[in-house]
Amino acid sequence: MSLLSVQNLKMHFPVRGGVFYTTKATCKAVDGVSFELQPGETLGLVGESGCGKSTVAKSVVRLLKPTAGSIQFNGHDISTKSQGQLRELRRELQMVFQDPAESLNPRHTIGQILEEPFIIQKMGTRAERSEWAAELLKRVGLPADGVHKYPFEFSGGQRQRIGIARALALKPKLIVCDEPVSALDVSVQAQVLNLLLELQRDFGLAYLFIAHDLSVVQHMSDRVAVMYLGKIVEMAPAAELYKNPRHAYTKALLDAIPIADPTKRRERQLLKGDVPSPINPPAGCAFGHRMKHPEWQESTKIDLRLKEVSPGHFVQACPCCVDL
Amino acid sequence: MAAPLLEVRNLRVGFQTDNGLLTAVDDVDFTLDAGKTLGVVGESGCGKSVTAMSLMRLLPQPAGVILGGEVRLEGRDLTQLPIGDMRKIRGNDIAMIFQEPMTALNPVQSVGRQIIEAIQLHEPMLPNKALKRAVELMEWVGIPAPDQRVNEYPHQLSGGMRQRVMIAMALSCHPKVLIADEPTTALDVTVQAQILELLKRLQRETGMAVILITHDLGVVAEVCDDLAVMYAGRIVERGPVSEIFAKPLHPYTQGLINCLPKLDHPPKTPLPVIPGMVPSLKDMPKGCRFAPRCPNKHSDDVLSQRQPWKECGSGHGVEACACFAQQLSAS
After folding, report:
1. Nearest residue on chain B to A223, judged by CA atoms?
2. Are B277 and A193 within 8 A, CB to CB?
3. Is A229:A64 a contact under the CB 8 Å cutoff?
4. Buried b / exposed e along B173-195 (16+ C-beta atoms within 10 A)
5. Which of A51, A323, B78, B250 fits a disulfide with B237 by CB distance 3.0 to 4.6 angstroms?
6. Among candidates A73, A69, A170, A58, which has minimal Cα distance to A114?
7. What is the arrangement of strands in the sheet containing B317-319, beginning at the earlier edge strand?
8. Nearest partner of A313 among A243, A208, A209, A257, judged by Cα
């Protein structure tokens, strides 16, 4: 059984305005996303800013209540649970945020921050909790006496380690990592990525790994899903996706990665224009619409579901972006 | 050989703080020729932005001080100029674009007005002529429908378009040097590729020199001719991009190149790392500043004595720390 199964997830936000603050439009941040995640597996989620990847992350941990669709975690449907029931589920479902400076309370010591999950879950005595906090710190490679310090006394990379320690506290099965290394320097980024891989091996964690850096995602993931304007346009095993991208958007994204090798300079096919707004998105294939593809009209008439083109390789089958 | 367009010699910049004077940039040297792009890489806090700010004489006042050294633009030492003359140089001769175009633009003025302001400051002209010029500039940097966009406000534009507006403003008076401080860090890869391509095109058309400050070695490899690697306020290695990527000499440069996840690296295996952290400005080693994190064996002398700079041919130079200097002479 899958650890996490997301079916046709939709997250729509009303856009209000005017004198009576009426709903003027709907922002379809996530519009029909489905994927599954097995225990111990990493699914990478990539896309440009505004494509809805963080909204997916927040819905999976139910920081947002989805408009439609179901999210099954370990056999329980998260999307309909009450806050009390969620508390129990969240032991096994944690999140690491992008900006470690903003996700740690500056007025709490590291000890307080790391003990909080246990307090919320009513676990252990005071002495046990402080012992656990010190162990957690050691586990992520920081000295145990750090429990008496405050977040500002640590560097960005160390704070992200603390964020990871907090997510790890309740021995979860799934950690949702929302851009965990994009605020870090490259040398520190490598340290944190190595830590995440090591923890996954030791604890059998599954990750939903969100990042905009495609080389980081490729390094971390077993499978990768590419999102564009609230929809997954392609999903495949990592090696397959990078070697053999089928969707025009995936190709464009891969082509835009700067390669740290001056001997491989090349003329690129530049994507024109910007990501369109998810408020009133175009019908049919959104990427074909952006590229003004001559066959875009065709895509509005057909069912744009993901289609399996080779084992495990799914792509949104629209005539304008994919040669089938 | 003709004198370089921009020559920075022994630049030292410090900040007055409660903990005394901290030296953020220590003995930075580089030259830049017209039409060339110099990449400056390093981790946050290594002094790359402070170097850029001191070239423009835009250090936060009164804390930031240039402690010594020269910044020569076509022979004139900018560090000695009176502030009035410096103001004429900014924009006219050296211009700058910043990382976050949203904070660098004024949110309550239309972008057109802001471009016109930049034009008229340096070149008095009638308002309608300036407006026409602003529209031309916006078209030049690839903004679609410039005659409508000129009346829009920064929040109506996307990140990439805002950065284009910044570039249009910076280039309004045809500067000889453009300093781009992390111009694409806040942008998506696809938009980053557009902006880098735009900078390359504008450089070809105007022959300006560009200093590109970034932490992304991929960006450097794509667009720069030369590279300076900064660590803790000093340049530790400098040379042509192809040379440095093919044969990085300093252990820090090697570490930086190795720790990037590469598309051909086996996935889910540990990446090589640079252990530890950058030393604090308060207790910076006198000698090799990278020594505490260096994988090579080194004696304590390395920490206490300034390590010599060594040129290794074709413009490739390195701070030759004793821990690897012998290999240099051997090869």
Report:
1. B267
2. no
3. no
4. bebbbbbbbbbbebbbbbbbbbb
5. B250
6. A170
7. B94-97, B177-181, B209-214, B37-41, B226-231, B234-240, B317-319, B309-311
8. A243
pLDDT in tens, chain A (324 residues): 799 999 999 999 988 888 888 888 888 899 999 999 999 999 999 988 888 899 999 999 999 999 999 999 988 898 888 888 898 888 999 999 888 888 999 999 999 999 999 999 999 999 999 999 999 999 999 998 899 999 998 888 899 999 999 999 999 999 999 999 888 888 888 999 999 999 999 999 999 999 888 889 999 999 999 999 999 999 999 999 999 999 999 999 888 888 888 887 777 777 776 677 788 788 888 888 888 888 888 777 777 788 899 999 999 988 888 876
Taking contacts as CB-CB distances below 8 angstroms, the residues of chain A near B254 are: none
Rounded-to-integer distance, Cα A225 and Cα B25, Å: 43
pTM of the model: 0.88
> What are the DSSP calls for B301-322, one per residue?
HHHHSPPPEEE-STT-EEE--H
DSSP per position, A33-102: EEEEE-TT-EEEEE--TTSSHHHHHHHHTTSS--SEEEEEETTEEGGG--HHHHHHHGGGEEEE-S-HHH
Q: At a CB cut-off of 8 Å and minimum separation 6, what does B225 contact?
A: B36, B37, B38, B240, B241
Q: Which residues contact B14 (CB under 8 A, 6 or more apart)?
A: B21, B22, B23, B24, B64, B65, B67
Nearest by CB to A242, which of B219, B221, B263? B263
ipTM at complex level: 0.82
Length of chain B counted residue by residue: 331
Partner residue facing B259 (CB), from A186, A255, A264: A186
